[in-house]
Amino acid sequence: MSEIKKWDEVNGTDDSGQRMEAFLDSATDSYAILQLRHSDETIYERFFSMRELGRMGITPDIDHYEVVYVGELTKQGDQIDVLEGMFTKFNIDRPEDFKGHSLSVSDIVALKVGGVVSCHYVDSIGFAELPDFIRRENHLKNAEMAMEDDYGMIDGIINNGPKQEPPAERTSILEQLKQMSPPARSAPPAKTIPERDER
Q1: What sign for the dihedral angle of Cα 15, 16, 17, 18?
Q2: What's the pLDDT tens digit per position in 14-38?
């Protein structure tokens, strides 16, 4: 059985978005290969180095990519060794079930090692790390906001508490004072002046 079919069967997915979620939720060290979608929107990003993208004011956007391959990470070593191994694997020893193009400039290799996800842009020389490429918390927050019945409970757990009623509208202190009847005022006591002792 091919690696990608096995991954899809184990993780119950066969599309790019679901593969990304399965990759992010994987309990084992894993990798994902992302390549730009074929569209007019990505034509000026395809096969461009980070330097060229920078000149055009473009930064890699996850919405322009699709996950074309995922698998368990078996290669050991430091991050550079692992990335170089991925480059070799997807250029020289490509898996039979890999349907993307050879790993090239503008592709992204996502690694999940020890629960930590990092994304690496295949650059003209080496790899450039993209620390903000996957903003997973935003996706989770958006999903929760769509399903949560109380926006006061946006905390990463969907519908985890009863809906809190909004506090009753308060009247301002000034309004409260205006509504109070003024206290009854009595005349001030007459001042007595001590009489002079005339002697």
Answers
A1: positive
A2: 567 788 888 888 889 999 999 999 8
Confidence of residue 85 (pLDDT cuts 50, 70, 90): very high
Reported pTM: 0.62
101's CB contacts (< 8 A; 6+ apart) are 35
Paired tokens of 34: 């992302």
Strand duo 65-72 + 30-36: pairing:
antiparallel
For 140-186, write each residue's pLDDT tens digit. 554 554 555 554 454 445 555 555 565 666 767 777 777 776 666 66
In terms of C-beta density within 10 A (0-12 exposed, 13-18 middle, 19 or more buried), how is residue 194 classed?
Answer: exposed
The answer to whether 107 and 33 have CB atoms below 8 angstroms apart is: yes
The answer to whether 45 and 58 have CB atoms below 8 angstroms apart is yes
Longest dimension (CA), the chain: 130
* 99 pLDDT higher than 70: yes
How far is 21 from 16, CA to CA, in rounded Å?
9
Which residues of the chain form beta strands (DSSP E)? 30-36, 65-72, 108-113, 116-122, 127-129
pLDDT averaged over the chain?
78
- Residue labelled with tokens 């629960």: 115
Q: What is the pLDDT of residues 150-161, one digit of tens each?
A: 544 544 455 555
Identify the burial level of 64 via C-beta atoms within 10 angstroms of its C-beta, where 0-12 means exposed, 13-18 middle and 19 or more buried: middle
